[in-house]
Amino acid sequence: MAVPVREWSNWAAGYGVPRIMLNLQARRGDPLSRLLTIDRNPVGDLYPLIEQVRDRGRMSPVEKVGWVTADARIIREILRDSRFRTIKVRDRSPFRIVKAIMAKTAPDVPNPLEPPSMLVSDPPEHTRLRHPVSRSFTPRALGALRGRIHEITDELLSGLEGSARCDLVAEYTTQLPIAIIVEMLAVPRDDTRYLLAISEATTKLIGISAPSWRDFRAAIHALRDFDDYLGRHIERLRRDDVDNSILSDVVNNSDLTEVEIRLLAGLLLGAGFITTTHVLGKAVVALVRHPDQLVALRANPEGWANAVEEILRYDTTGQLAARVATEDVDVHGYPVKAGDSIFLLVGGANRDPGVFEHPNTFDVARANARDHITFSTGVHSCLGAALARMELQIGLQSLFEHFPELALAGEPRFNGSIGLHGLTHLPVSLGATRAAVS
Ligand code: HEM
Questions:
Q1: Which of 84, 130, 275, 376 to mutate to test the pocket of ligand 1 (most atoms within 8 A of CB)?
Q2: Which of 189, 371, 388, 409 has the highest local Cβ count within 10 Å?
Q3: pLDDT tens, residue by residue, 339-350
């Protein structure tokens, strides 16, 4: 098959060359490069590498790029500081020539990592893009969904009865959040399989620092197809006057353009299940590996709300965020220059010993578990945090109450993503149901 020169040049400039550089630095043992290349050099446990970054100081320089930090206070402050903007694709290289090549060869497809995606837009544009959907995600607006999350959870768990073993990612941790978000957006539930395939392809662009040419190309194709799919969905909402979708109001009453609506719909769909799926999967692993914590939760089911905060703190999916300084800023004595990028190791902030006592201990009763920044902070703080919390609590509590003997039946397999760190497979034996045990 002929290689499309434009796309290849874009990949080579923005991803291919950084990929070679990162591989070299990773081979020399640089901890940040090792974290950024976990898709091709898997590491069993990310946290020792994050500690190596922390050991270098509250902020440490990254050659030609800027800085990296795992310091909770600094990360929190940067995320809330309007002198730092979100990172764009053009920031992938400090060199003007590379930026020019990237701009000239950018694939002509809406991309969640490019404006006008809310995720990478800055105020005041960001406010305009977020406002039309923000009221659909308040805890109050979501209250009515609680019963529906219970129904879907029960349906999925009943479907698992009778299987001695299963892959919990395929059968449960993806199915629950996706079923909820498709319903909220009035997307047909039958499209789940398609959406999972799209998310698998695009995660390689979004969650991996420098994807291979093959993965880049597959992601661009998937984004193109997804854009058409979203166009058809939005047209259906308009034509059929569907009123049970949180998008209906945006489609009919907001001043957003067609491209902005498609990107918003795509972001809600993707963000609405990919992250929650990963947290659910990693939570199951953490809980079964700490049976004493499950015993405590069985004795005190009221503790589940705090357990969810500890789960979010202990092993987050968004291990990495990044911001760019728009002016020179003194960050606790570190001279950040305008244009510097800063890698924010969110998973490291959540294990900062200055905030969390014994940070590597998984303790569902931890008093300040909620001080994590897994949902970010500042203007881009997660829109779906209340929804995610509800899904995690109901999804995990119901799972362990339904299958009290649930155990790992093999090694969980990780996806090699640093930005969306999670599981692709989670083999478990389910054991007897609670009804059978009691
Ligand atoms: C446990 C699950 C989740 C985690 C860990 C998570 C994490 C995050 C984080 C860290 C950000 C900020 C990204 C940045 O600053 O660069 C974010 C933004 C966002 N999240 Fe979530 N999220 C989760 C679930 C959800 C759900 C269920 C939705 C529902 C639709 C959602 C929708 C969004 C949206 C729309 C944004 C963009 C907000 C903005 O840029 O203003 N997320 N999320």
A1: 275
A2: 388
A3: 999 999 999 999
Q: Determine the 3-state secondary structure of 181 from DSSP.
A: helix
**Looking at ligand 1, which residue's alpha carbon is closest to its atom 2?**
276
Contact (CB, 8 A) for 154 and 245: no
Cβ partners under 8 Å of residue 101, min gap 6: 9, 10, 13
Going by pLDDT thresholds of 50, 70 and 90, the confidence category of residue 2 is low
**How far apart are alpha carbons 295 and 317 in whole angstroms?**
25
Angle between helical axes of 192-206 and 213-239 (0-180°, round to 10): 130
User: Degrees (nearest 5) of the Cα angle 420, 49, 375?
Assistant: 35
Q: Give the span between the Cα atoms of 178 and 403, in whole angstroms.
A: 22
Q: How many Cβ atoms are within 10 Å of 59's Cβ, its own excluded?
A: 22
Distance 435 CA to ligand 1 centre (A): 36
Residue type, 266: G
Beta strands in 195-236 (DSSP E): none
Which residue in this structure is represented by tokens 């945006």? Answer: 250
DSSP string, 352-374: -TTTSSSTTS--TT-TTGGG--T
> Bridge-partner residues for 436, per DSSP?
none
At 181-214, the pLDDT tens digits run 999 999 999 999 999 999 999 998 988 889 999 9
pLDDT at site 71? 98
For ligand 1, atom 42, the nearest C-alpha belongs to 384
Residues across the chain: 438
Amino acid letter for position 375: F
Q: Please give the single-letter amino acid code of residue 248.
A: S
Cα angle, residue 98 at apex, residues 94 and 101 outer, rounded to 5°: 150
- Alpha-carbon span 111 to 283, nearest angstrom: 30
pTM of the model: 0.96
Torsion angle, alpha carbons of 249, 251, 252, 254, to 10:
80
Task: Give the separation between CA 146 and CA 126, rounded to whole angstroms.
Answer: 29
